[in-house]
């Protein structure tokens, strides 16, 4: 026994040494690639730095806890974050570099990876032995820690990312024992896949606000009423904190309501986004689409044309002054900021005082030339931004442009005033600071790091790339435009960004109140309304479906992939049933089982009222399932088959199950289900088709095999129904077809 332990320790020591050598080897190979990315400006930082900056997103190689044991959040001070060291740190950096090399999308996805995979190393104390001995059990052991620190989908998403990290990087690069990592945690999103479940219903309710148009309309109504009050010389009931604070964002609302644009798509609209097609005599909107779709032109609905055109014209009027200044900054950089720091009415005593103290009046000015506390220069610079004060604890508080203070002189600035200290400000240093803020906004908007003082002014997607400087943005403002605090509009030009709209629509913890709170807009329960930008897309999609528009057209119009409209459909089950009933009551009902039944009834001279009653009985409600539709009233008569729409009774399908031949998403779900059970059977019984008639249905294994066979048969029958619909497309109206397994076979 005494001999075995030293041998085991010696063997483990050798394994750890080999692992360290392997990591060093991978690091040496990666350093040249890392240095090339740093030189190109794609990454900012050194290999061993606590943080890297990738396309203006900070990646933290730090532990998830502070020294005091608190969970690290976005508000944790930098000095409280503890860097990771050793082999684990190098493995993490190698992985992040690997992901950066093949990355083309939003840099946010890369910056968030470390916050997820760090929990694996943290759980095992970043010990090299834990890395070398990784296996499925050790991965699964991290789950309770994740569940203790996160809620909802948080634990699953982190666990899934950890499994992927180990499977696709750690195992592949031979940094641990070879095994096949698997996700052995239930996905909480699966509950949403069942369209009849309570989880799904709650999730859908949160995504949809039925009265979103009414609430926005009330803000507009009260805003316009206040304009009329001010014109009459009366005080506003709901005053704007500053000019254009509410108006610009109200002008953005038609782009959400009329076209269902995503919040990022609204913010990046081009100043010339409106176009007119002389052939169709219709207006359209040029949209730089998100989510990897190609940039496209969206037709503006006729009922919205006047609103969109007027909104666009008014936005151009408001932003012209900011656009002109942004253009000047693009062309002349710091000098553009210097030139707006003008003081045309300066008293000669100020010029003399500056010159006598060695300061050129053209290059410097006194802070009191702006005024006193709270004063604002015509350029947008505030007196407070140039101050250095102390709080009650004696801590220094510096204004954002306080670094441009270069000295202090003792002088008089006008006749009769006392000689007193005056703060001297350098225009050049102030302009340099402003230019730095301008570049930071560029990095934020374009998701690019600064390289040699420049930032690529390109809107990038996986499917397109467009050069678009700030002056080309439709919503171009100044940096304090949407700040409810200072009355200044700001000094640095920048586009409207997502948070400007988000904080206006929904309550948060900042000082800025949402528009709904400021205008006192309440729901039926007397609660202040909250709206997310994505709810506009759900609202518009539902409205289009209610108007009878084709789902494929809606997907195209909304800039979505085919088949996604179902996720945005918030019509009630009865509304969907009514839509289907109206199609079957038409002169040419669909050529399916139910449609042919209607035709036979008409051939037998059954009156229309009785046909309608029969349809009302059959189609009282319609629900969605992952594979198609269900016309069973689940509130009155719950499903007895456990959502086995395709299998039904002994593979004959369910009589309540229907197929929409235009629903490609459901078709793919049917294909996936078929492949899933075929794979299971292939592993159990390679020749299951020949043995199916010999199965003993009393044995658990035989029952499972029979279940698989019946489900596969149901899938094949459903797919044949899709093919029949495709073959007869020219002779059919594109509506939901009721699935009949007997005829499909």
Produce the secondary structure layout.
Blueprint: H1 4-39, E1 43-44, E2 51-54, E3 57-60, H2 87-101, H3 108-111, H4 113-123, H5 128-132, H6 136-140, H7 143-149, H8 154-170, H9 190-193, H10 198-207, H11 212-231, H12 247-259, H13 263-267, E4 274-277, E5 282-287, E6 296-299, H14 302-332, H15 334-340, H16 348-356, E7 364-366, E8 388-390, E9 396-398, E10 405-411, E11 420-426, H17 427-446, E12 458-460, E13 465-467, E14 476-478, E15 493-495, H18 498-505, H19 515-518, H20 535-546, H21 551-558, H22 573-584, H23 593-603, H24 608-618, E16 623-625, E17 628-630, E18 657-659, H25 664-684, H26 688-691, H27 700-727, E19 737-738, H28 741-744
Antiparallel strand pairs: 1-2, 2-3, 4-5, 5-6, 7-11, 8-9, 10-11, 12-13, 14-15, 16-17, 17-18, 18-19
Which descriptors would you attach to this protein?
745 residues, 9% strand, 4-stranded antiparallel sheet, flat, 28 helices, alpha+beta
Task: Explain what the structure shows.
By secondary structure, the chain is an alpha+beta fold. Helix content is 46%, strand content 9%. The chain contains 28 helices and 19 strands. It has a four-stranded antiparallel β-sheet. The chain has a three-stranded antiparallel β-sheet with strand order 1-2-3. Helix 7 (143-149) packs antiparallel against helix 8 and helix 25 runs antiparallel to helix 27 (700-727). The longest helix has 36 residues, at 4-39. The radius of gyration is 33 Å and the shape is flat.
């Amino acid at each position: 026994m005494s001999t075995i332990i030293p041998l085991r320790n010696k063997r483990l020591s050798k394994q750890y040494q080999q692992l360290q050598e392997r990591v060093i080897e991978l690091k040496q190979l990666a350093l040249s690639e890392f240095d090339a990315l740093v030189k190109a400006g794609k990454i900012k930082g050194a290999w061993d730095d606590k943080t890297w900056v990738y396309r203006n997103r900070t990646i933290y190689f730090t532990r998830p806890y502070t020294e005091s044991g608190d969970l690290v959040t976005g508000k944790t001070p930098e000095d409280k974050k503890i860097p990771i060291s050793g082999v684990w740190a190098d493995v993490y950096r190698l992985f992040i570099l690997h992901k950066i090399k093949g990355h083309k999308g939003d840099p946010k996805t890369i910056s968030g990876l470390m916050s997820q995979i760090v929990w694996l190393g943290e759980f095992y104390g970043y010990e090299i032995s834990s890395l070398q001995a990784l296996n499925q059990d050790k991965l699964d052991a991290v789950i309770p820690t994740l569940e203790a620190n996160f809620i909802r989908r948080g634990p699953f998403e982190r666990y899934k990312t950890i499994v992927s990290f180990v499977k696709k990087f750690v195992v592949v690069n031979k940094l641990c024992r070879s095994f096949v990592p698997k996700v052995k945690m239930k996905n909480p999103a699966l509950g949403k896949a069942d369209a009849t479940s309570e989880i799904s219903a709650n999730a859908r309710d949160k995504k949809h606000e039925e009265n979103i148009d009414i609430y926005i309309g009330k803000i507009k109504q009260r805003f316009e009423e206040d304009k009329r009050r001010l014109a009459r010389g009366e005080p506003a009931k709901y005053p704007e904190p500053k000019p254009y604070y509410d108006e610009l964002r109200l002008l953005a609302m038609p782009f959400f309501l009329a076209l269902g644009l995503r919040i990022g798509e609204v913010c990046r609209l081009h100043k010339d986004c409106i176009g007119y097609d002389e052939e169709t005599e219709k207006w359209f909107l040029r949209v730089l689409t998100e989510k990897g779709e190609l940039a496209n032109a969206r037709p503006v609905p006729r009922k919205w044309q006047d609103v969109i055109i007027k909104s666009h014209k008014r936005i151009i009027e408001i932003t012209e002054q900011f656009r002109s200044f942004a253009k000047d900054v693009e062309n002349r950089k710091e000098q553009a900021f210097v030139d707006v720091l003008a003081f045309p009415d300066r008293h000669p005593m100020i010029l003399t005082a500056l010159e006598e103290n060695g300061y050129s009046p053209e290059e410097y000015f006194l802070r009191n030339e702006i005024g006193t506390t709270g004063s604002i220069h015509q350029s947008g610079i505030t007196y407070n931004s140039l101050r250095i004060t102390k709080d009650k604890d004696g801590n220094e508080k510096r204004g954002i442009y306080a670094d441009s203070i270069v000295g202090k002189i003792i002088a008089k600035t006008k006749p009769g005033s006392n000689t007193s200290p005056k703060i001297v400000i350098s225009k050049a240093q102030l302009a340099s600071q402003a230019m730095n803020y301008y570049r930071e906004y560029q990095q934020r908007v374009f998701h690019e790091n600064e390289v040699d003082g420049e930032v690529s002014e390109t809107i990038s997607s996986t499917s397109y790339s467009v050069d678009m400087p700030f002056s080309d943005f439709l919503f171009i403002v100044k940096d304090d435009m949407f700040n409810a605090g200072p009355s200044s509009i700001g000094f640095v030009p920048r586009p409207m960004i997502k948070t400007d709209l988000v904080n206006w629509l929904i309550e948060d913890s900042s000082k800025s109140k949402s528009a709904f709170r400021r205008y006192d807009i309440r729901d039926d329960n007397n609660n202040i309304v909250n709206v997310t930008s994505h709810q506009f897309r759900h609202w518009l999609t539902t409205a289009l479906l209610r108007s009878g528009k084709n789902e494929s057209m809606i997907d195209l119009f909304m800039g979505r992939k085919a088949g996604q409209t179902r996720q945005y459909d918030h019509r009630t089950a009865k509304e969907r049933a009514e839509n289907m009933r109206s199609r079957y009551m038409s002169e040419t009902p669909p050529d399916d089982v139910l449609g042919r039944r209607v035709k036979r009834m008409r051939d037998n001279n059954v009156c229309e009222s009785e046909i309608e009653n029969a349809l009302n009985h059959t189609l009282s409600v319609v629900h969605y399932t992952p594979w198609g539709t269900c016309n069973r009233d689940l509130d009155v008569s719950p499903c007895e088959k456990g959502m086995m729409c395709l299998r039904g009774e002994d593979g004959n399908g369910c009589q309540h199950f229907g197929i929409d031949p235009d629903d490609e998403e459901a078709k793919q779900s049917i294909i996936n289900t078929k492949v899933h059970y075929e794979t299971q059977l292939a592993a159990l019984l390679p020749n299951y088709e020949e043995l199916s008639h010999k199965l003993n249905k009393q044995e658990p294994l035989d029952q499972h095999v029979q279940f698989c066979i019946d489900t596969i048969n149901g899938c094949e029958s459903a797919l044949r129904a899709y093919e029949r619909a495709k073959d007869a497309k020219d002779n059919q109206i594109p509506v939901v077809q009721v699935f009949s397994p007997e005829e499909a076979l």
